[in-house]
Design brief:
CATH superfamily: RutC-like
InterPro entries: RutC-like_sf, YjgF/YER057c/UK114
Protein name: Reactive intermediate/imine deaminase
Distance between the termini: 15 Å
Largest sheet: 6 strands, mixed
CATH class: Alpha Beta
Pfam families: Ribonuc_L-PSP
Strand content: 25-35%
CATH architecture: 2-Layer Sandwich
Family: Belongs to the RutC family.
Number of domains: 1
Strand order of the largest sheet: 1-2-3-6-4-5
Number of helices: 2
Radius of gyration: 15 Å
Mean pLDDT: 94
Shape: globular
Helix content: 10-25%
GO molecular function: deaminase activity
Amino acid sequence: MSGIETILTDTAPAPAGHYVQAVRAGDTLYISGQLPIRADRQPLPDASFETQARQAVTNMLEILKAAGGTPAQLARVTAYIVGVANWPEFNRVYAEMLPDARPARTVVPVPELHYGFLVEVDAVAYLPTITTA
């Protein structure tokens, strides 16, 4: 594989700006920041931090899956959370959703996120190219 491949799936929300859901450059997949927006772009029925965290991680995992990856191939995840008080809840949800994957991770408490959301996640995954002889 050469060049940069765009990854798009309808199982995660379509980008609302000048970016794509993810790009694959060689063996590396870069997943754009995922807000807690449903794939159909409809509002979440419950705006709790837990619901938002689950949706943002789900979006990330759906894009990873669309690229042919699994959670075991996540190399790095960055989470931006509004308020340090939400850190324990994020840890709990994250561990439930990624029980066997332990990529490098950074959690960054921030004062606010776009549209008033409480969490955003992005990721980098290693997807080795399979070659056949």
